Every structure is written in C-alpha cells, then in structure tokens.
Amino acid sequence: MSAEPENPAESGGESTLTVVLAGAVNLAIAIMKLVAGVITGSAAMLSEAAHSVADTFTEVLLLTALKRSARPADRVHPFGYGKERYFWALLAAVSIFASGSMFAFYEGFSTVFGHSGEQARPLVGYLVLALAFALESVSWVQSFRQVRTEARTENRTLWTYLRLIDDPAPKTVLFEDSAALVGLVLAFAGLGLHQLTGSPVWDGLASIAIGVLLACVAYLLGRTNRGLLIGRQADPAIVYGVRDHLAGAPEIEAVVDLQTMLMGTDQVLVCARVDFDDALGAADVERACVRLAGELTETFNDVTEVFIEPVPRTDPELRATVLARYGEPNRIQYPKS
Fold first, then answer.
1. pLDDT-based confidence at residue 239 (cuts at 50, 70, 90)
2. In the Cβ-directed half-sphere of 289, how many Cα atoms lie within 13 Å?
3. Distance CA 331, CA 337 (A)
4. Measuring CA to CA, how many Å separate 291 from each of 4, 23, 312?
5. Which residues in 225-262 are b (16+ Cβ under 10 Å) and which e?
6. How far apart are the C-alpha atoms of 24 and 53, rounded to whole Å?
7. Going by CATH, does the domain composed of 236-326 fall within 3.30.70.1350?
8. How far apart are CA 6 and CA 34, in angstroms?
9. What does 52-118 look like in DSSP terms, one character per residue?
10. Cα 58 to Cα 56: distance, rounded to the nearest angstrom
11. Domains of the chain: which residue ranges?
C-alpha cells in the first residue's frame, strides 16, 4: 500500500461512475432481455432478464452504500459510518443470489423436468444477446479499468489487489459484469442448441448453469463483505509500516502488540501497545504518543485513528495474549478469507 496521500473524493467519484454506468446499462439490458424472453419463450433468456434485474438492484444498493458511508462521524457513531458501505454491499451480494440465481434455477428446472413451450423467433433472442454483450462490455471495461489502475498504483497484481481491496463497489461491479458476459454466452448456447436439436432441455440446462454462476459470484462477494463487515485487519503493508515506524521511535524500546481494523474504505484504526523507555517521565510519554499518532496519520493516508498504550513488555498475561493471537512474537498474518 502506498503511503502517498490519495484524494478520497476522487476514489469515491470513480466508484460512483463505475456503479452508475453499470446500473444504467443493466436496466436497459433487463428490459430488452425480458421482451426477448417473452417473445422467444426461452428459459435462459428469462433467466438472463432476472440476472440483469438483480444487477440493477445491486447497483442501487451500492449507490446507497457509497452515499451513506460518506457521512461524517457523530456522537452516536464516533468512528464514522464507513462500515455501512460493507453492509449494503453484503445486501447486494444477497440480492444477486436471492433474485437472480433462484429465478434462474426455477426456470431451468421447470424447463428440463416440466412442460415448456415451443421456441419462437430465436433471431430476436440472438440480436438482443449480441446487443446486451456489447453494452455489458462497456460497463465491464470501466470497472476493469478502475481496478487495474488502482492495482498498478499500489504496485500489485490484479488478483492480489482484489483480495486486499477495502472498497467493495468496484469489485462487486467487476464480478457481476464478468458473470453477465459469461451468462450471455451460456444463454446464446442454450438458445442455439434448442434451435438446432429442437429439444428445450438445452435451454433449461443453460438457465441452470446461469443460476450456478450467479450463486458462485454471490458467495464470493458475500464472503468478501462479511470479512470487511466484522472488522478485517488492515492491509499488510500498512501493518508492517506502522510497526516499523513505531519500533524506530527513540522513545520506544519494543512494540509489544499491534492491532488494526478497517473502519471503512481508506479508514484504518490502529491500536498499539508499546514499551517506552523507563527513563522517560509521564509528560514525555504523553508528548511522544501525540507526536507518533500524528506521524502515523500523516505517513499512512488510510490511518485515521491511532491509540497508543504504554505497557511493560514483560507482563506475562499480555505476552500470553499476543502469543495466542499471532503464534509467535512479531508475526502478523493476513487472513485469506
């Protein structure tokens, strides 16, 4: 993570543009797919319509997340509302599964095991799918461009950046747009095989495959937002940077414990227990704490709150607590989930 200051407004503006563009595209595509699904009688096409409706609702939830999480701290929420972005993003993941995936499964199994009508005017379906693919590509390019640019800014690979990202909006849009493009290919295959073989089973199987795809995307996004919502550790680069900065302070003999938590996008809480030089007086320790807190917030733009607690490093209970958390001294691991 780069320690160079970033403009949060610019980051939020980029995410807002990505979400708004995706929402407008998905709404237009949902209407086209619904009309084509009614005309052709294709289960896969109707499943794709439900997919786009779910994606549109997802963008509304993400816009809500961006707006509500930007509210300043107050008496009731002294650390701000940053985590609200994770709550609404989690609801977005649930909506993808509840509306898109479940409807696709229903249409698919009804077609495979139940009665299905005859296929009509498949050309309409092909044209709508082609147009939808072109429109979805526009949204996908925007979301991919944002994620790739931010990954390059932090000198990370795309996958590493997606694993460590603390803003769920661009990741959600990228994943759902990628799933949308794959879903369109599946719908095209189901529509084509139905026309070639005359069997609606292929159309139903395509719808089931779309349901599986959406369920997988919903699970991945849900797991990401769950980790962020319950309080994930900060970026490892920030954790190690903060530790090294404190350890290098002349007043500090040892960093006994260091805990960090994401309080929202670009908002990190730091709690450090350090062993100060015993020769320092109480006033010296107080001034050192204030100075170090200011240095950390200035050096690491994401660090917004710092608490420094003076402790003796030889305390057995504290040492046992640290060992139980990290396994060995000075070892800070990043969770994979």
1. very high
2. 21
3. 18
4. 19, 45, 20
5. bebbbeebbbbebbbebbbebbeebebbebbbbbbbbb
6. 11
7. yes
8. 42
9. HHHHHHHHHHHHHHHHHTTSPP-SS-TT-STTHHHHHHHHHHHHIIIIIIHHHHHHHHHHHHS--PP
10. 5
11. 8-229, 236-326
Strand partners, 310: 274
Backbone φ/ψ region at 121: left (φ over 0), alpha (ψ -120 to 50), beta: left
The answer to whether the beta carbons of residues 90 and 225 sit under 8 Å apart is yes
Q: Is-contact 220 92, C-beta < 8 A?
A: no
Grouping H, G, I as helix, E, B as strand and the rest as coil, residue 23 is helix
Asked whether this chain's domains 8-229 and 236-326 adopt the same fold, the reply is no
Q: Specify the DSSP element, H or E, that contains 245.
A: helix 236-247
Query: What is the distance, to the nearest Å, from the Cα of residue 141 to the centroid of all Cα atoms in its chain?
Result: 17
Domain spanning 8-229: CATH 1.20.1510.10: yes
Cα–Cα distance between 207 and 106 in angstroms, integer? 9
Which residues, 6+ apart, have CB-to-CB distance to 49 below 8 Å?
30, 33, 34, 36, 37
pLDDT band at residue 123, thresholds of 50, 70 and 90?
Answer: confident
Give the separation between CA 4 and CA 154, rounded to whole angstroms.
Answer: 10
- The length of the chain, given as a count of residues: 337
Tell me how far apart the alpha carbons of residues 276 and 290 are, in angstroms, rounded to a whole number: 14
Residue in the structure block whose two tokens are 């503006």: 13
Q: What is the per-residue pLDDT for 279? A: 93
Rounded mean pLDDT, 18-26: 82
- Find how far residue 298's CA is from the centre of its chain: 26
pLDDT of residue 119: 62
Cβ atoms of 214 and 97 within 8 Å: the answer is yes
**CB-based burial of residue 78 (10 Å sphere; 0-12 exposed, 13-18 middle, 19+ buried)?**
exposed
Alpha carbons 21 and 143: distance in angstroms, whole number: 9
- pLDDT classification of 60: cutoffs 50, 70, 90: confident
CB 166: neighbour CB atoms within 10 A? 21
